[in-house]
């Protein structure tokens, strides 16, 4: 059922009710008009007292002095029932002749006349009952034409009578002519009921509502016990057609707003009806109040059912996605890890819808080949970043789940924390802590920003990033290769604390495997050439990418730039050749150079160059890189501290924070144990090489 349609109707109804109140009543019953006589209800246009009926033809008398219960009369005819759909039922008398063995006892004819109403030709039948009976009706039509109809009924034995059907044996019927407004009925006998008066002393003739009269053999004997029979009249307004009537709006009787006009089917005039879906009296100005109770129930009921069905469908879909996205596997994993470490939470679709104001455009904080990132506010007021990926490779579900699990366990202050995910949507949604201050790329390459980025800050960012990657490579229960280290994946918070993000391309390396063959994936400018050629993924690929990042921090140049001459487009080669040619200080960024820490710059540059070695095995490990950078930082902060002291300090730090698998033997400080932060996402694993200019 069209819910919308019904709502529109409901609203139209309300409006019509309001409108109706504003229109002055004309040709309407006065207030206080009686609407019934006894228990017969009398709807307008009919009425029983002055000012209560539309015109004289609808005037009825209610006779409560002579009759109890009171009776209603139209002219001399008793009214049994009135309905606003243009019909009324009246009492119809019958003509009769009776005999005994001696001959005729009595006979009477009957007549009927109500010039304002038409005897329905479709719902009445002229009927004669008797076994020696001739019934005749003569009368006038509404246009003055005369008519005469009749039928003859015989039978010589009661047994020959067809009990229950009016078929000529004891009973006969014929149709009424169209448009008849009156009749006189007479009944006659051929043989004075000779030989049959025992079982059928009388003959009868009458006009009766077809559906009402069921002939039975009992009628041959006892029919006269009835007072009368019902007959149906059609009534209509005036003697004009709808079209003409509408022209004279003051007398047009279809007053209700939601009413329609119909020409009378068998005579002059028209009648009114409430429009489809409405009920009431179309002749009353604020009636046709539409939707009946049952219809209302239907509306409410069906919309309820519609809602339930929709909801159920929605639930099914959610469940399907949840399973498709490995939700069950995820739950199993969760229960296995229960209690061990703070782990990602499963968010519901409603949580995230609310958090993002139904994925409002204004909440979009990032868009790319991977999908869309929204800023959201959870119910507990935590600000989060919600990543809605574009693609979902069904084959990688298990891996996806595994990565979510692993990454959600990473609790490193320099890795963006994965708070949880939602698996009820077609594509899983990932929820991260929200990092306020944008990407490192923005801070390096944005004119106004770069000058704010001091050498000390750059060194801190480099050391923190290296520490985080080293931690991923060695500290997590299963080594993780990030695969997409670049300045746009390093985020900074208000305090310029580094947060490594986007583990969409990351791979978990089983401990017994040093390398992994994969589809080459990464970003041009940062992509390890060895990996690119061999498809052999090792931790050293991240080292290379980090080398590019270091060069970026040192020079302020983009990893890949078409502004530079062709041979220098790739920052890695440009950096390497410049150092080779002793031109390092010409390509460094002004800010660090102006700070005058030239020795340090040189050391970091050397480190970057080692990271950028073409052969992976010649590159340092991330642990070594991190250690070296951390050492430089300590010296920067406390130039008087010697290296030994630094080692002791880091050992102390490590004692507090290193994961329990004993992998680290006190060499690098990957985590100073301050804050809880962590990371991860991992789902956009398709595509081969993203053609990114490496910003
Ligand atoms: C009409 O009223 C009489 C008494 O006033 C009652 O006995 C009768 O059942 C009523 N008929 C209907 C159809 O309500
Ligand atoms: C009621 O009916 C009787 C008998 O038909 C008649 O005499 C009387 O005037 C009628 N009363 C009214 C108020 O019509
Ligand atoms: C017939 O009816 C009349 C009048 O009631 C009566 O006088 C006569 O005896 C009846 N005849 C028979 C045969 O019953
Ligand atoms: C038929 O109608 C006429 C005039 O309307 C009347 O004089 C006559 O008595 C009526 N006949 C019967 C049987 O009612
Ligand atoms: C005719 O039908 C009526 C009920 O419809 C029944 O009471 C009556 O006895 C029947 N007559 C005969 C002769 O069967
Ligand atoms: C019927 O009865 C009438 C008088 O009651 C008589 O004049 C007539 O001849 C009778 N007809 C027959 C066919 O018996
Ligand atoms: C009435 O019955 C008698 C005797 O059976 C028969 O002679 C006569 O014709 C019958 N009359 C009619 C009109 O059937
Ligand atoms: C006549 O018969 C029909 C069906 O056989 C029944 O529904 C209806 O109530 C009967 N009418 C009367 C007045 O008995
Ligand atoms: C229609 O009715 C009006 C008033 O009721 C009357 O004056 C007019 O003659 C009627 N027209 C026809 C064609 O019956
Ligand atoms: C980044 O942090 C700095 C220092 O807290 C602050 O001044 C600046 O407004 C922040 N930028 C953004 C984009 O949040
Ligand atoms: C930044 O540092 C201040 C002071 O140490 C601290 O209150 C605040 O929470 C830090 N902000 C973030 C995002 O870590
Ligand atoms: C850590 O140290 C222990 C003993 O000091 C040594 O047996 C172990 O091999 C070391 N592990 C690593 C990964 O260096």
UniProtKB/TrEMBL annotation:
Q: Which residues form the Protein kinase domain?
A: 359-641
Give residue spans, biased composition: Polar residues: 674-689
Q: Which UniProt keywords apply?
A: ATP-binding, Disulfide bond, Glycoprotein, Kinase, Membrane, Nucleotide-binding, Serine/threonine-protein kinase, Signal, Transferase, Transmembrane, Transmembrane helix
Topology of this chain in the membrane:
Single-pass type I membrane protein
Transmembrane regions: none
Is Membrane one of the keywords UniProt gives this record?
yes
Stretch list, region Disordered: 674-695
- Give the organism, scientific name: Nyssa sinensis
> What Pfam families does the record point to?
GUB_WAK_bind, Pkinase, WAK
DNA damage listed as a keyword:
no
**Catalytic activity of the protein:** L-threonyl-[protein] + ATP = O-phospho-L-threonyl-[protein] + ADP + H(+); L-seryl-[protein] + ATP = O-phospho-L-seryl-[protein] + ADP + H(+)
Protein name, per record: Protein kinase domain-containing protein
Q: Which InterPro entries match?
A: Kinase-like_dom_sf (IPR011009), Prot_kinase_dom (IPR000719), Protein_kinase_ATP_BS (IPR017441), Ser/Thr_kinase_AS (IPR008271), WAK (IPR013695), WAK-like (IPR045274), WAK_GUB (IPR025287)
What cellular component GO annotations does this protein have? plasma membrane
Give the signal peptide, or none.
Answer: 1-25
